Prior knowledge:
The chain is mainly beta. The chain has 15 helices and 52 strands. α1 (23-32) runs antiparallel to α2.
Amino acid sequence: MGLWTLPAMAQQAPAATPNPASPDAVTQAAQADPQPGADAEVASDTRAAAIAGQSGDAPSSGEIVVTGTRINRPNVTSAAPITSVTQQDIRAQAPVNVEDVLNRLPQVAPDSQQTYNDSDGRQRIKLRTLGFERTLVLIDGKRLGTQNGQDVGIIPPSLLERVDVLTGGASSVYGSDAVAGVVNFVLRKDFEGVQLDANYNFYNHNNKDTIVSPLARAAGFGSPRGLTNDGGRADVTLTAGTKLLDGKLHLSGFVNYRKTDEVPLTSRSNAGCYITQLQLNGPLSCGLTPSSSTSGLITPQAGANAGGQFVNNPDGSRNFVPFAAGPGNASNYFSGYAYQRPSERVNAGGFATLELAPEAELYASGIWFRDKSYNNYPTIASGTVNVNCSNPYLSGTQATTIGCGAGTTSVPVTLAYRLGENSDRPDTYVNTGVRLTGGVRGKVGDAWTYDVGGVYARNHQDYIPSFGIPGNLQNAVNVGGTAAAPTCASGAAGCVPFDIFSAGNTDPALINYLFGTGTSVTTGTLYDVQANMTGDLGKYGITSPFAEQGLAIALGTEYRKDTLSSRADAAYRSALGGNDTYLSQDVWEANIEVQAPLVEHKPFAELVQLNGGYRVSKYSSNPSTFNTWKVEGVYAPVRDLTFRASFNKAQRAPTVVEIRQASNIEFAGGGSGTFNDFCAPTVTTGANGVTYGAPIASREVCRATGLSDALYGSQTLLCSNGTTPNGTAACSVRSGGFTADPETAYTQTYGLVVKPRFIKGLVFSVDRYRIKIDNSLGYNDYSYYTDGCLRSGGDQFFCQGIVRNPTTGTLFANGTNATTGYIRQGTTNYYTSIAQGWDFQAQYALDLDTIGRLDFGFNGSLTTFAGGQDSPVQPERNCAGYYGNGCGQLIPKWSHGLRTTYTTMDKKFSASFNWRYVGSLTNANNSGDPAIGGTPERALTNYYRVAPQNYFDLALNFAIAKQFALRLIANNLLDKSPPIVPDSYNISLARSNTIPQRYDSLGRNIAIGTTINF
């Protein structure tokens, strides 16, 4: 896809006079000419220079924008691998969102919030397998915003100059968040004139029957066939800029509008219903959810039929039928879910620079955005209510079934009634925000440059869910009067009687009475002030006797403040609970960085260079001060070969959200939990009543949880079923109340860059990376401790999370102040996280003389380890190439992109063909590795592997006139359908029977784009 290794760089330096022979000058000329061929040639030349360790391209103002160091030497040599995507590559993909570009990079753990029905609409970036909290996102070398509230959707793809991805630790340069690396978005800020960029794309997919289709039809659901065109996405950006005051003042601005149409799950034959595999190697079936019956599911809680499931007869008669598949009986619970979420976004911003003197330049920028998106959920009236036996809607047979009899005035039933498949109610997310930057930069003499500035970022989210209004369901079910003139017996104002004893109720007035909305507001802010200075000490003669360049140094200091506040209105709190919160964290940091060329242009030592960096950090949330550092080396024995190595140590403090998750105490269970104590007897209900068997856990494991042998297997330990002697309904789970300490990461990269003089135009690099995070921060639910304790045979690392009542041995806590009787869960430190692998990148430019030229760009990644170690006595969990059993990052062992671009000699036409390869993924049960749940016999015999996937993209660019360029693009050219994975929610958090963030799940994407200069 046109990728290469850039030199390690990321900040802004004062404008300089461009060298006509430099890549900067070529870039300026190309930007003045919209012809696609010119862009291709410049991009190719820049890639070749960058992968060889020379300077990368710069914006046409002459600014140097670098990623990975604050030392702004134009000829700095990279000691760490950087992958970059140019403007040409971005346009060849016709993306509407920047994640469309980044998800194709093998170094990025793919994430696509537009394919999650449970998304909040904000897109984050995750490098390697290490989570977004460990990936620092920058815009032009400065922070995008807060780690928890950031949204890269603020960046219009058409405004990008390029994207640099530094994979490896960069905490000593940027701060503790850069454990996995840095993603730096370099924007076009120096535009002159008026330009319109527009893209429109849609999906063109031929639905063919899949293994899901007959299952969906058998359940009474549809499965589409034939060609469909849907999922339109529009992206329009208007950019304008000018220079004033003899070129000393430059102003530019943009307005961007994006709109995405909904694509429902039911529009694809692979998602006609949610498929599940209920037993090992068993058949697939549609997951039928009783609570989604549009005829109403009624479960008596008393009488002879207590616990039975009955559905109102869909034929309209007032009698019950058993719950089963079929129209009117079971509905498709996920029929209203989106494959592509509908959304609408507006971004606007501006940039300004003012040269006060050769030594000082003022700069400022501002970006504002507003995004609105939706998640649809079934409108289901559910809960346990008391039904009056005089209810006029209740027939005699129904009354007998639910337990009404002589002398009975009311009976309890559990109700689950879906009020029509077309009555789904949305949860709405409105994200707004602003990002402002400003400062002054310049130079002091010939040796020093400085940049003093800062960032203010604010992300605000209004979450507006739909929910049942407490008490209204009971009011509506308690019906009096007659069937012809029903009333609410409670007499509650506005009450609408609810006929729960007939099928197909979709009364809008009833829905409006039963359901309401509330608003929860979350606001995150970042205040970031930095002062940085770089110096070339070679100007003072501090130079190695064997080198031409002198010692370079960078000094910096930084103050950051992160805040996060959340509040909700009375309606939200009444229905969903929770508390208003305000969290903040202050950070003070200082850093130093050094580049020392030791030998240059000598026999067997074309370049020998050492780099170093050190940062000290103090977080208000932690009493200790901690440090990060880096040591790097570059050795080029000849111009053709460059060896490089980088060693980084980083310490990451918890974010404000992680601090809240760790410290805030909340209890669940005692009525809503599901876990049953594995030291309690197993319970079996049969024809002869309830029988009790041996516990799941051994005596040794139960001892490790603090249970005495006398209570082993005691019925008093039972928590979660209706036969419990102690009357409790679920074991208790406590979230929070724990310490979250900083984690420590060590990153190593070793690489080789080859630019053979005998093969003109070829540049190749290979890099080995190793990342290990000790005392790793993360969220673990209660099963992490229970499963780990059970599986390990009593390892205290896990078993300490099971905190028993010291007297009774039970796991039931009374009250929110309980200190025992629970299983813990939440954010805290666990043992290690590990990521290891190899990156391969190459660029080759082939001049075809009068025919034109060919450019090849390759980016591949081999992941050898993705996982970690849960405790000192447990084996390492390697999830590379596996899914399931906690292997949630979905990283194949090998993936790559190869883009080939042909450009005519007159640069009026170019064609770009891209091959994307995604390696296989195997269910962890079949790994043969017990550390991830694998068994020697390879337990699964069907639906256990996703085969490698190949995708092909084609982009055609036409320079119709100097002011007008046209692009025609087809991504997933062959309309390859996604692989089908049963129980996909457990794997990818999606109900689409696939892994939508990893694969092109909606089919062929056709795009038309244009750039018009006025």
